[in-house]
Write a structure and sequence with these properties.
Two copies of one chain form a homodimer.
Chain A: E1 3-11, H1 28-40, E2 46-48, E3 57-67, H2 73-83, E4 88-96, E5 108-117, E6 130-132, H3 141-146, E7 150-153, E8 168-179, E9 182-189, H4 196-208, H5 215-223, E10 238-244
Parallel strand pairs in A: 3-10, 5-6
Antiparallel strand pairs in A: 1-3, 1-4, 2-3, 5-9, 5-10, 7-8, 8-9
């Protein structure tokens, strides 16, 4: 008999080459597979909802794997957390239909970007937020961010290395709010191009620093010109927050 | 001419032997002194408000140092943060009278203890909070904690190695509240014995787990019996939050 199990995987991406297995450097996927291999006493392959880059974190990465032996949710979660390295943890596990596929079934995702806007750096947010120093009018941020909502060709918000043909995506919702010391920028969409959230964030912050207002986003999207936007914000501020399934 | 400068120093204590210089292992004090030495181009000795143990963090450690050359607050803060390692940062610097002494002048201190009460560990709080798994009635916590308020002989809340003669201290205020995923326990006092806040925290949590109620604290304090309390909570959850001066 075969069983399909889904899990929510949290991680600090700082010490990893990213989600996906790489031949030369440690990845989250590899660590989780190694831990599952020990629990199930045979090799296990997992499918994630998508890749995250080196240095990017997750509180919502969702993955699934098919096995021919059954371990209950509670035992799986406690067991795997005792094996995984400290910077990776599994928050939840549950049974899914055999045809569930964490990547193909994903309907939308929310990414969270954390920003420390301060004259002075803070050791507590090292590798966990983008330190934006100097003057920036953060009241502008939600207005600029909102311009990314809707269905657009996001070619201008895509790393140059991308070879994707169709760059049309839908940003369903954006949020910008303060939580504690940090600003939180959230983007929910049906799909994301490579570096899309980091480029959106960099573009928002460049506007807040006085370079332009919300109208620039329309121009950027229409002309499909990456150079109209801001810098690609650092990986360390980005979190895959949640993956939504039917 | 001589100048006296105070600073607020933040740190993650995980990779250090503690605040105070040790001959064999790296300390926060040593790192800050090295950085100041580079800025002032001569050896600088700093005085902290008090020691913190290995693994204990700070958002409010206050220190001062006397020099014969002057650097402005802004230049000092920006300069030292560019030299210090990522897990130490200086939040603020200001001029103080020549006779100011960060340890002797300290009137009271607030310590914060962070607790993750969850069935499952989380990578985000590794080395930053105490993971309390299993059942615990956290509603009891503020009631047990409150019993520590007032002036008492705190011999029962002191590491056995302490050689202090007079163990009478005053706990001025306690707080217990939820912030995000974590419970926060705060203790403000005019002075603290070695491990005092960690023993108070361990005693509160053991009570929440069903071992006893608030009356145990009175018994513990009166009998001066360390064994009546709970375990010493781990260093990783403790933060020196604020030091108060006249």
């Amino acid at each position: 008999m075969r069983f399909n199990k889904a899990m929510i995987i949290e991680y600090l991406g700082t010490n990893y080459a990213g989600w996906q297995c790489q031949s030369h450097s440690p990845s989250i996927q590899e660590e989780v597979q190694k831990a599952l291999g020990k629990l199930y006493k045979k090799p296990v392959t997992i499918v994630g909802s998508g890749r995250t880059d080196s240095g990017v974190h997750s509180m919502g990465q969702t993955a699934n794997f098919v096995t021919d032996s059954y371990i209950g949710d509670e035992s799986l979660v406690l067991g795997i957390n005792s094996i995984l390295p400290p910077d990776i943890s599994v928050a939840k596990a549950w049974d899914v239909p055999l045809n569930f596929h964490a990547q193909k079934w994903a309907q939308k995702k929310t990414y969270l970007y954390k920003i420390l806007h301060s004259r002075v750096r803070s050791c507590f947010y090292e590798d966990r937020a983008w330190w934006v120093k100097g003057r920036a009018d953060m009241d502008l941020a939600p207005l600029i961010l909102k311009e990314f909502e809707g269905t657009h060709d996001f070619t201008s918000c895509c790393a140059l290395v991308s070879l994707k043909q169709n760059n049309v995506r839908t940003v369903l919702e954006t949020k910008f709010y303060r939580a504690g010391d940090l600003y939180h920028l959230e983007v929910t969409g049906n799909g994301f191009l490579h570096n899309m959230v980091r480029i959106i964030t960099g573009t928002v912050i460049k506007g807040c620093r006085g370079s332009y207002g919300p109208e620039r986003v329309r121009e950027m999207l229409e002309t499909k010109d990456r150079k109209k936007g801001g810098p690609t914000a650092p990986a360390a501020g980005l979190y895959l927050k949640e993956v939504f399934y039917p």
